[in-house]
User: Which sequence fits this backbone?
């Protein structure tokens, strides 16, 4: 058996993880504990592939209508090879893109394409990845001999995907958000998409610049205290406090599964234990 490739954390920008892996040691332990026996024996331990229909939070807008229905499919060996091939490269977000372009059949009336994947909100992309997981491996994550990060005892755990925290959009058709800033200013924002994510990944090793990429793309207008508006302000012209406020708003309000926030209560020690779920856990190391 070959070593599983290291899959990237779920999507994030700059130093603001939207979801996914924030404590690598715990996630590594989780990956190791995941169906260890199954991986070693090759014996399936799965509650059958699940549904292939999913309803997105935002979806796509076409000819005056929002389309939110999407269809995914079960991944096969060709997909597994394709994903492993990009996983060994230097561009981790390509794994997410490959999962989406192969595992999603359609959104609304359109066949899935790279361009369409880029148009989707990051939260919708993660929702689709969860749906591909469900279609491929079923609806539960099984952990065996997972070390409790609080007391060290080894835990066997079954986690239904539905137990992973999820953020819904209050109004799926609202595409602009107003955020109060310091000194009476406010910003009007849109939520980041896969295409925004792509642009962030093109900036290497400079988190401030990555933040600037997201801010320059997602801040539509800045309203000054006197009511004057600046259309698409340069991200560098925003002060540091406002930049942080805006980025935090984008993180907090992005819809979709919050894989990094999953916790369970360990009965033996009574503690709430963090168990961040990442792609390698969802797809069993691939
Ligand atoms: Zn414990």
Assistant:
């Amino acid at each position: 058996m070959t070593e599983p490739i290291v899959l990237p954390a779920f999507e994030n920008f700059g130093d603001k993880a939207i979801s996914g892996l924030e404590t690598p040691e715990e996630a590594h332990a989780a990956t190791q504990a995941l169906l260890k026996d199954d991986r070693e024996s090759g014996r399936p331990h799965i509650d059958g592939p699940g549904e292939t229909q999913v309803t997105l939070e935002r979806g796509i807008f076409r000819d005056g209508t929002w389309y939110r229905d999407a269809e995914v499919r079960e991944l096969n060996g060709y997909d597994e090879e394709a994903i492993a091939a990009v996983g060994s490269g230097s561009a981790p977000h390509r794994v997410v893109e490959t999962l989406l372009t192969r595992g999603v059949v359609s959104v609304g009336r359109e066949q899935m394409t790279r361009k369409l994947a880029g148009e989707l909100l990051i939260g919708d992309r993660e929702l689709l990845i969860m749906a591909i997981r469900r279609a491929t491996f079923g609806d539960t994550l099984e952990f065996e001999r997972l070390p409790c990060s609080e007391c060290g005892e080894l835990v066997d755990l079954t986690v239904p995907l539905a137990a992973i925290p999820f953020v819904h959009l209050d109004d799926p058709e609202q595409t602009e958000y107003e955020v109060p800033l310091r000194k009476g200013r406010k910003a009007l924002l849109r939520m980041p998409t896969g295409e925004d994510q792509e642009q962030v990944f093109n900036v290497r090793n400079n988190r401030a610049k990555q933040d600037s990429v997201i801010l320059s793309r997602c801040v539509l207008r800045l309203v000054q205290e006197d009511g004057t508006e600046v259309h698409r302000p340069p991200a560098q012209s925003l002060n540091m406090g406002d930049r942080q406020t805006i980025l935090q708003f984008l993180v907090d309000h992005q819809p979709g599964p919050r894989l990094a926030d999953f916790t369970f209560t360990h009965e033996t020690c009574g503690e709430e234990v963090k168990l961040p779920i990442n792609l390698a856990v969802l797809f069993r190391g691939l």
User: Anything to note?
Assistant: Residues 230 and 268 are 56 Å apart (CA to CA). The radius of gyration is 20 Å. The longest helix spans residues 122-137. The chain has ten helices and 16 strands.
